[in-house]
């Protein structure tokens, strides 16, 4: 199988959408290097979900430094034996989430640090966004039963979803962005669902926003 757009593919989505599971399946099929966000190692994350205002800056700073270290190790060292690289996050999401959680001088400091760190990374050849409605995200989060996620509020998920949409509007002239509405799909246990998404991702896309199953609600 070949991906028409290039070798560096990012799978994105809101919390609970299944982006990591899909990235793992895709990397296996493509024999690709796989970059998975190690969010469970963030010691501030459980504290942040309980007290966002107090722990927003340390949680975002930890995420940014860990993402930068991980991407630098992989993207700056090509592998001659693996054509593709699949990641379940784009580094720009660092600023996307920080913009929702930080204010004032903390946000301005964070933006300066982000700009410096982001300058070394290539843009993805294709960014795929898996979209689910907030009620379905809540069901997915409850189902996987991670203790530190159980306090996530629907309003927070709506804010993150809208932040992604705003980010895509700004980036649509820079990279191809494919928005896949996976509401009700189970690509982990249903091979037909997975193959359908795989076929969509393999197609060529120009720079800009591309939608499957219509425009996502809220776009």
Automatic annotation (TrEMBL):
UniProt lineage: Bacteria, Pseudomonadati, Bacteroidota, Saprospiria, Saprospirales
Keyword terms: ATP-binding, Kinase, Nucleotide-binding, Transferase
Active site: 88 (proton acceptor)
Leader sequence residues: none
The protein's name: Deoxynucleoside kinase
Binding, ATP: 13-21
GO MF annotations in UniProt: ATP binding; deoxynucleoside kinase activity
Source species: Saprospira grandis (strain Lewin)
One GO term describing the cellular component: cytoplasm
Deoxynucleoside kinase domain location: 9-201
Pfam families: dNK
């Amino acid at each position: 199988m070949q991906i028409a757009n290039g070798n560096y593919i990012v799978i994105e989505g809101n919390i609970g959408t299944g982006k990591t599971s899909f990235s793992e399946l895709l990397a296996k099929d493509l024999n690709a290097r796989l970059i998975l966000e190690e969010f469970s190692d963030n010691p501030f994350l459980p504290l942040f979900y309980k007290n966002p205002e107090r722990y927003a800056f340390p949680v975002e700073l930890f995420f940014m430094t860990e993402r930068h270290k991980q991407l630098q190790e992989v993207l700056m060292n090509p592998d001659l034996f693996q054509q593709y690289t699949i990641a379940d996050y784009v580094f720009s999401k660092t600023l996307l989430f920080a913009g929702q959680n930080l204010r004032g001088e903390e946000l301005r400091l964070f933006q300066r640090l982000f700009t410096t760190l982001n300058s070394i990374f290539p843009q993805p050849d294709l960014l795929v966004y898996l979209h689910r409605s907030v009620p379905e995200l809540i069901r997915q989060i409850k189902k996987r039963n991670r203790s530190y996620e159980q306090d996530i509020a629907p309003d927070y998920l709506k804010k993150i979803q809208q932040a992604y949409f705003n980010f895509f509007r700004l980036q649509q002239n820079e990279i191809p962005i494919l928005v896949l509405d996976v509401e009700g799909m189970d690509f982990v246990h249903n091979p037909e669902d997975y193959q359908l998404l795989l076929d969509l991702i393999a197609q060529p896309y120009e720079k800009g926003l591309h939608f499957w199953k219509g425009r996502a609600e809220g776009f």
